[in-house]
């Protein structure tokens, strides 16, 4: 039988009672006080030094014991990743509040259910994303990056070029707060000019037929 390594965490320094309660639960479960790693750190932080220290000490046959699931994992994804890391060391995870020991068949079932729930959640997110994109396309807009110029602005640029061909690309680009390449592209798409490196609209060539 391997060792029992305990981990306890509270979010702020004002929660000493909560920390003491966790440590008491761990010692009652057979964890030596010297084998308990504890820290004051918010659960939203990915870098939890004492948790990493506890994980580093694990050897084959050991158990990582935690009083409450929410003291260990920040999310379902985090739980599954930690479980995989612990299993990779040949150790197991014990969650006292859930009466879970991943070395047992019921404990493995618990983790499997959590994994299925994570996949289901990811699937729902993916379906919602696809549905939103389909709705956007149906309304005549493409999801993702917003176009630099609206159709109305493109028409204005074409009209401005045709009526005021003394304007430079730089001047029109400045008026619409876009790059010169964007202006060249809009005029080229309209079949009015061909793309050239010159900056003068008046010198841009009309495409030959």
From TrEMBL:
Q: Keywords of this protein's UniProt record, alphabetized?
A: DNA integration, DNA recombination, DNA-binding
Q: What residue stretch is flagged as signal peptide? A: none
This protein's name: Helix-turn-helix domain-containing protein
Which Pfam families does this entry report, sorted A to Z?
HTH_7, Resolvase
Cite the InterPro entries for this sequence.
Homeodomain-like_sf, Recombinase_CS, Resolv_N, Resolvase-like_N_sf, Resolvase_HTH_dom, SSR_resolvase
Matching entries from PANTHER family are given as: DNA-INVERTASE FROM LAMBDOID PROPHAGE, SERINE RECOMBINASE PINE-RELATED
Which SMART domains does the record match to this protein? Resolvase
Ranges for domain Resolvase/invertase-type recombinase catalytic: 3-140
- Which catalytic residues are annotated? 11 (o-(5'-phospho-dna)-serine intermediate)
- Tell me a GO biological process for this protein: DNA integration
Q: Which family does it belong to?
A: Belongs to the site-specific recombinase resolvase family.
Query: One MF term from GO for this chain?
Result: DNA strand exchange activity
- Classification via SUPFAM superfamilies: Homeodomain-like, Resolvase-like
Whose protein is this, by species? Raineyella fluvialis
């Amino acid at each position: 039988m391997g060792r029992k390594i305990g981990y306890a965490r509270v979010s702020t320094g004002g929660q000493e009672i909560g920390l003491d309660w966790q440590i008491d639960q761990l010692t009652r479960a057979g964890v030596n006080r010297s084998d308990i790693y504890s820290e004051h750190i918010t659960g939203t932080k990915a870098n939890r030094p004492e948790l990493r220290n506890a994980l580093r000490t694990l050897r084959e046959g050991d158990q990582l014991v935690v009083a409450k699931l929410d003291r260990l994992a920040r999310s379902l994804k985090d739980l599954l990743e930690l479980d995989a890391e612990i299993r990779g060391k040949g150790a197991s995870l014990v969650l006292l509040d859930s009466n879970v020991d991943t070395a047992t068949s019921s404990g493995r079932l618990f983790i499997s259910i959590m994994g299925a729930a994570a996949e289901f959640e990811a699937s729902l997110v993916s379906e919602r994303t696809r549905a939103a994109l389909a709705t956007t396309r149906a309304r005549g807009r493409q999801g993702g990056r917003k176009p630099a110029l609206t159709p109305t602005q493109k028409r204005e640029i074409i009209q401005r070029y045709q009526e005021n061909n003394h304007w430079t690309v730089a001047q029109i680009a400045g008026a619409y707060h876009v790059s010169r390449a964007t202006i060249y592209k809009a005029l080229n798409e309209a079949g009015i000019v061909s793309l050239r490196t010159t900056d003068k609209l008046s010198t841009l060539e009309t495409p030959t037929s």
